[in-house]
Design goal:
Protein name: Response regulator receiver domain-containing protein
CATH architecture of the largest domain: Orthogonal Bundle
Helix content: 55-70%
Number of helices: 19
Keywords: Phosphoprotein
Organism: Ectopseudomonas toyotomiensis
CATH superfamily of the largest domain: Hypothetical protein af1432
Strand content: 5-15%
CATH class of the largest domain: Mainly Alpha
Largest sheet: 5 strands, parallel
Order of helices and strands: EHEHEHEHEHHHHHHHHHHHHHHH
Distance between the termini: 60 Å
CATH topology of the largest domain: Hypothetical protein af1432
């Protein structure tokens, strides 16, 4: 049977969606034409294997219902599955647990949190190399850009990794022992990484009812190893570079805007003795939609679609907000953080936290024409609700609200 006649199937049994997606990225990096099936419990994994055997199973040892070890045990009992490649990832590292797994001959028994780079290397021995045809994109099924963007808005992979961020990711992953402070310094200025880590930490914390709202909180919850794993998964996403110079220039400008809004929101919060890191995070994440949209435009072009300057401008004007909203909801960013991000664009009715008012003021300051000073906002609704001293507006550093 030739490689083209058989599509490699990999079954991932993992309850945590972020870990499951990371495992999917690792598989696709090693075998780009693999078909990856994802289930969240052991019974579903066993039922899938009974219907059709995959070429490899990657399972969490602590799956709900039927755990990973019992899944492996039941598969080994079947006469057709004694040699099925099986990677077990377990938090049980005591001697009795390891002894219980050894007779079942897992292809790998990995400790939690696993080292994603080591697992990727192990997968190279378990999976075939990517077929050459993987590099050839499938033809577009939609003829109009607007229809394409409507389709990908709800399923897009998010923002691209810009060149300097990719370098920072690479350095962070290649370094030896790192503490959380070093990771925060490396990743803290990138909106996509920040959003991903907050979302992952909040998902893991749902059973505690305490979502994370800042990168610092997320890093403390996730720890160094899991953080690096998640960022590696992001770096492995295929087609994550913007090759069109027009799109790359817009992305660089958007990224700088995100950093300016974050720094400005933090400065205002510090002046008012509010939660500065929370305001920084909301400012950093407010234009994820623009970055996600730019990546989708690049994907459209690389699949053979035409892309004029007018189409780019129109898409950025009309679709950025909806792309950002869809991404924040799909990633399950905490609702309180989404409210703060929304406040940067405008205030509706209701009761607002002082941090939300700071984000709204941040948006107004960034929208000021170059010939207007912050003092011109003294009658703005957010300024009045904050009871802001006009002298504070006069102290806002020009570099924070005006582009260079």
């Amino acid at each position: 049977m030739t490689a083209s006649a058989h599509c490699v199937e990999v079954l991932i049994a993992e309850a945590d969606p972020w870990t499951s997606n990371l495992l999917q990225q690792l598989v696709l990096d090693v075998c780009g034409d693999a078909r990856v099936l994802q289930v969240s419990d052991g019974q579903a994994a066993l039922a899938r294997c009974k219907r059709r055997l995959p070429d490899l199973v990657i399972a969490d040892g602590e799956l709900p219902g039927l755990d990973g070890l019992e899944l492996l045990r039941q598969l080994r009992r079947h006469p057709r599955t004694p040699a099925l490649p099986f990677v077990l990832i377990s938090g049980r590292l005591d001697a009795s647990s390891v002894r219980a797994a050894r007779p079942l001959a897992p292809s790998a028994y990995l400790a939690k949190p696993f080292n994603a780079e080591s697992l990727r290397q192990r997968l190279r021995t378990l999976l075939p190399a990517p077929a050459a045809a993987v590099a050839v994109r499938q033809p577009l099924l939609l003829s109009e850009l607007r229809d394409y963007l409507d389709t990908v808005r709800e399923e897009g992979q998010g923002a691209p990794l810009l060149s300097d961020v990719r370098n920072a990711v690479s350095q962070g992953l290649q370094a030896g022992e790192q503490d959380l402070g070093e990771l925060e310094a490396v990743f803290g200025s990138d909106p996509q990484i920040t959003a991903l880590l907050i979302a992952a930490a909040s998902t893991a914390a749902q059973h505690q009812g305490v979502p994370c709202h800042t990168l610092t909180q997320a890093l403390q919850r996730l720890g160094v190893a899991r953080t690096l794993n998640l960022v590696l998964g992001l770096a492995l996403q295929r087609n994550a570079q913007l090759r069109d110079l027009r799109l790359a220039e817009l992305a660089a400008h958007t990224w700088q805007q995100a950093r300016r809004s974050a720094e400005l929101a933090r400065w205002l919060a510090l002046e008012l003795k509010l939660d500065a890191e929370l305001c920084y995070t909301a400012g950093l994440l407010h234009n994820l939609g623009e970055l996600s949209l730019l990546r989708s435009l690049q994907d459209w072009q690389e699949a053979g679609g035409e892309l004029s300057n007018e189409q780019i401008d129109d898409a950025m004007l009309r679709r950025s907000a909806s792309f950002g909203s869809a991404l924040r909801i799909r990633w399950r960013l905490p609702f309180g953080l989404r409210e703060l991000i929304a406040a940067l664009y405008g205030l509706g009715s209701g009761v607002f936290s002082r941090e939300a008012l700071v984000l709204n003021l941040t948006g107004l300051l960034l929208a000021l024409p170059n010939n207007e000073l912050p003092a011109s906002l003294v009658e703005a609704r957010c300024v009045r609700m904050l009871r802001l001293d006009p002298a504070l507006l006069e102290r806002v550093p020009v570099a924070l609200y005006q582009a260079s």
